[in-house]
Amino acid sequence: MKRRYAVLAAVTAVLLLAACGSDSAQVSGEGKAPGELSQEAAEGTATAEAEAKEDGTETADTDVSSGQAQTENLNGNRKLHIYYSNEMADGLEVTLVDADAVTPELLLSNLAKYNIVTPDTKVRSFETEKEGEETVAILDLSREFGNYVSTMGTSGEYVILAALTDTFLDAYQADRLRLFVEGNCLETGHALYDWDFTRYPLTSYTVESVVFEKGNIHVEYPRLINMKDSFTETEWNEILESHAMEDVEYLDEDAEYSLTYEVATSTEELLCIVYRVNGYEPGAAHPYSYIQTFNIDLNSGKEIRLSDFVDIGNLLRCLTSGTGFELVNTELTVKDFQEYLTTCPDMLTEEYFENFDLNFMDLNAHPMGYSYKKDGSVIVCMEVNHAMGDFVEVKIR
C-alpha cells in the first residue's frame, strides 16, 4: 500500500512471505523447519513403504502440479491415492491403497503413516455438498491436527495441507476442501485459513521464513530456496530482505510493530507474496496498518504489476458500476466503499491504477497501491482512511 512517509519516518518495516522475529541474528521460522519435516517424512515413508509391500499396495511418483490423479476401480476394489511429502519436503509422492469403502477415518489413518496427521487426530464431522456445479468436501478435525500443523515451518505446513487436501479431493472426487479444526477455521502462526482449499500445485522451490525481533518489533519475511534460476533467487531474496528491514532502524524503542507475510500464489510460473504491517507509535492518535505485495514472474525473473494482471479500463468499469468485484478481509460494505470513492475522484483514473505495484524500472516511483493474485483471482489493494481500515482489498471476479 502507499505508505505515508510521516509515519514511516518514525515507524516502518516491511515483510515478505512471512512474519519475523530475532535479535540481530536471523533464524528460521518457529517450530519444525522444512529439514525436520523431511526427516519425519523420510522415516514415515520408509515405514509405510515397507507396510505397502506387505499389503500389496503400490507406491509411485506423481506430477502433483498436473492435478490429474483420479480414483480407480480395479477388481471391484477402490484404489485410493494417499499423498505424502517427498524426502526433500518440496513436493508430493503418492501411494495407492485398496479399500472396500471410502471413509475419512481410513484416509486419516493412511495419512498418519506418513506424518501428514498425527495418529490421535480424529474426524469430528465430514460431509460433501454441491455448490453450483462444484462439489465441496467439508472436514472438521480435532484439535490435535491444529496443534500439530502449528509446529511446522512454512514449507512443512504447506506440504501437510497439500497432502491432506489432495488426498480428500481425490477420494471424494471433490473440487474444494473446506477445513475446520474444532468447528473453527484452521489458524496457525502463518495464516488464518478461512478459504476453501483447491488442489495444491507444489513447486520445485521452497520458501523459508527469516525472523527478526527486538523489543516489541516483530518482522518475518521469506527467503526463496532452490529456484531454477540462481540469479533470480539471489536478486529477489535481496529485494525481499531489504523491503522487510529497510525501516526498522527508524522505529522508536517503545514502538509496537509487526510485519507478517502470506504466500498468496506459488506455482512454477508465478509467486505472489503479501506483506501485512500493523504498528503503533507512542503518542500517536491511533494504530496504523498497510499492505505491500511482490509479484514475481519466475520465467523472466521480473516483477509483475497490476497492469499486467488486468485491463485497467475494465477494472474502472467494475468499480464505478459496483459489479464484478467483492471486498475481502474487511467488514466494509461495497456501498460504503463506493461512497468513499466518490469523494476521491483521483482514485478512479487509469493513471492511478497504472502506478500500482513496485516498478524496478523506476526506483524513485512510489506505488499508489498494490495487487496480487490468489486462487486465480486478482486482488487490488487500495488505500482508504483509517476509519475504514487504512486499506481495502478488492477481489476482481
Structural features, described:
With 397 residues, the protein is α+β, with helices and mostly antiparallel strands. Helices cover 26% and strands 31% of the residues. The protein contains ten helices and 18 strands. The chain has a five-stranded mixed beta sheet with strand order 5-6-7-8-9, covered by helices on one side. Strands 10-11-12-13-14 form a five-stranded mixed beta sheet, covered by helices on one side. The chain has a four-stranded antiparallel beta sheet with strand order 1-4-3-2, with helices on both faces. α3 (104-112) runs antiparallel to α5. It is globular and about 65 Å long. The protein starts with a helix and ends with a strand. The model is unreliable at 1-76 (pLDDT under 50).
Stretches with pLDDT under 50, minimum 5 residues: 1-76
Q: How many DSSP E strands?
A: 18
Mean pLDDT: 81
Structural class by sheet pairing and helices: alpha+beta
User: Helix-strand pattern, N to C?
Assistant: HHEEEEHEEHHEEEEEHEEEHHEHHEEE
Provide the helix percentage: 25-40%
CA-based gyration radius: 22 Å
Straight-line N-to-C gap: 21 Å
For the biggest β-sheet, the strand order reads: 5-6-7-8-9
- Helix count equals 10
Largest sheet geometry = 5 strands, mixed
Based on the structure, what is the oligomeric state of the protein chains?
single chain
- Overall form: globular
Per DSSP, what share of the residues sits in E-state strands of 2 or more residues?
25-35%
Please provide a brief summary of the model.
With 397 residues, the protein is of the alpha+beta class. It has helices spanning 5-8, 34-55, 104-112, 143-149, 154-171, 230-245, 306-309, 312-321, 334-342, 350-354, and strands spanning 58-61, 72-74, 77-85, 92-99, 123-131, 134-141, 176-181, 184-187, 192-193, 206-214, 217-225, 256-266, 270-280, 288-297, 325-328, 370-374, 377-383, 391-396.
